[in-house]
Write a sequence for this structure.
């Protein structure tokens, strides 16, 4: 992410000058600090439980970090926390390992001034050991591991996450949706919450995140924001910034933003559809072939085939919560089975109509509560496996075909079922690293077991007067 004073429309291409500028960010960061009177910098990390962790650093100390005169530590125990912030003592470094300190290696390109928090900037860091070795458990490192495979082949990945989310306001102890009804895209409804939409668009634009459009969606209180495509690890960095920033922006306006996949019964779920394409060293989109009737290259078909083949494993890593699977239901614009098609929103994989340099794959499997680093890593790994193994995707659903009725292979129906699939998948451990997969499985299993022991309101309402 570029500093606020250098913000521009990234679009699909980066100029040679932009690439050269990225090689020396320190002067630009120093200028942004002076111009925006930055006093504090948040140094941020996304952990294995999909929680954003950060340390607040005074600007004087931050400048020492930039110059290499200081290091910033990070407790390894934080990677043993589950979503309830419970320390799972058998996961990660443990007391036996002494819970050593790790350190934060700043990614200077991710520096951003926060326009909604005067005097504050944010930067993303990689987690490394005391010996400066990457920590294999870190989701950002897992994504870099997969991207290195693309680099070795001379490929670059372009993409973005398209987020949906809900906004609520607390009224007398009850959460009420920010707007009522189901009139998605309705101008009068959007005017009621225009201050929310404008705040999100304006602040994200100032940050250099390049939002493209925002609107109300098909759920009372639901919104959607789409953003410009970015390259490589920045695809996930942008998603990380989007979700964190939107929650903070809405909180300042008295709303609570929820990125749960299914926060309300009877309403639409929230997705984080992943749009992505692969380009060669000459910036040619390798998914496009003008000589094919559908405009898709062999590589694109094989890429889709790999994602379909590994779909259940992808689900286990893209949909990491119990709640995620409440969204994956038939007839809901979310997939419940393994399928692909041309501009068909009943499919797991949708190929939008655009061709040429804009040819891309949309994976509709991730929910809004996905970890963008992990989701992108496993999706790209599956696509690359498809290219290497030349996996044909089978027949595509046509634009008017209902994939909920025609596709036969189901996606996992619960987190527990998905984790079983992941545990059996030796390929996932190979491409993401066994340490990460084992760590991920341990934390998610503990959460799922805790859920199975919990008596829900539904059970009491359904059975309370019967038994």
């Amino acid at each position: 992410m570029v500093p606020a004073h250098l913000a521009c429309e990234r679009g699909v291409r980066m100029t040679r000058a932009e690439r050269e500028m990225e090689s020396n960010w320190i002067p630009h960061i120093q200028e942004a600090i002076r111009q925006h009177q930055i006093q504090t910098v948040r140094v941020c990390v996304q952990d294995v439980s999909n929680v954003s962790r950060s340390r607040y650093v005074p600007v004087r100390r931050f400048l020492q970090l930039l110059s290499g005169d200081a290091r910033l530590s990070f407790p390894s125990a934080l990677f043993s926390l589950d979503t309830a912030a419970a320390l799972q003592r058998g996961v990660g470094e443990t007391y036996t390992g002494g819970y050593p300190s790790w350190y934060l290696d700043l990614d200077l390109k991710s520096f951003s001034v926060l326009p909604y928090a005067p005097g504050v900037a944010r930067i993303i860091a990689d987690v490394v050991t005391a010996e400066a070795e990457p920590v294999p458990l870190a989701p950002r490192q897992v994504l870099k591991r997969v991207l290195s495979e693309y680099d070795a082949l001379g490929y670059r990945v372009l993409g973005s996450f398209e987020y949906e989310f809900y906004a609520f306001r607390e009224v007398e102890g009850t959460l009420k949706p920010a707007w009522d009804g189901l009139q998605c895209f309705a101008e009068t409804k959007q005017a009621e919450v225009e201050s929310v939409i404008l705040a999100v668009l304006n602040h994200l634009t100032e940050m250099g995140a390049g939002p493209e459009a925002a609107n109300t969606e098909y759920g009372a209180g639901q919104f959607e924001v789409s953003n410009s495509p970015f390259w490589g690890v920045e695809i996930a960095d942008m998603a990380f910034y989007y979700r964190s920033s939107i929650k903070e922006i809405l909180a300042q306006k008295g709303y609570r933003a929820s990125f749960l996949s299914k926060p309300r019964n009877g309403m639409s779920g929230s997705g984080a559809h992943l749009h992505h394409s692969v380009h060669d060293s000459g910036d040619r989109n390798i998914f496009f072939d003008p000589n094919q009737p559908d405009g898709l290259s062999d590589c694109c078909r094989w890429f889709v085939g790999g994602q379909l083949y590994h779909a259940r494993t992808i689900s286990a890593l893209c949909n990491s919560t119990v709640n995620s699977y409440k969204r994956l239901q038939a007839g809901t614009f979310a997939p419940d089975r393994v399928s692909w098609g041309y501009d068909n929103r009943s499919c797991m994989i949708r190929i939008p109509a655009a061709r040429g340099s804009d040819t891309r794959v949309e994976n509709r499997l991730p929910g809004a509560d996905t970890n963008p680093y992990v989701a992108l890593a496993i999706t790209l790994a599956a696509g690359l496996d498809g290219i290497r193994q030349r996996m044909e995707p089978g027949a595509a659903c046509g634009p008017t075909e209902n994939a909920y009725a025609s596709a036969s292979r189901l996606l996992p129906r619960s987190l527990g079922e998905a984790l079983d699939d992941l545990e059996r998948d030796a390929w996932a451990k190979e491409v993401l690293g066994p340490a990460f997969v084992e760590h991920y499985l341990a934390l998610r299993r503990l959460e799922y077991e805790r859920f199975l022991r919990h008596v829900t309101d539904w059970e009491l309402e359904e059975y309370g007067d019967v038994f």
Notes: The mean pLDDT is 92.
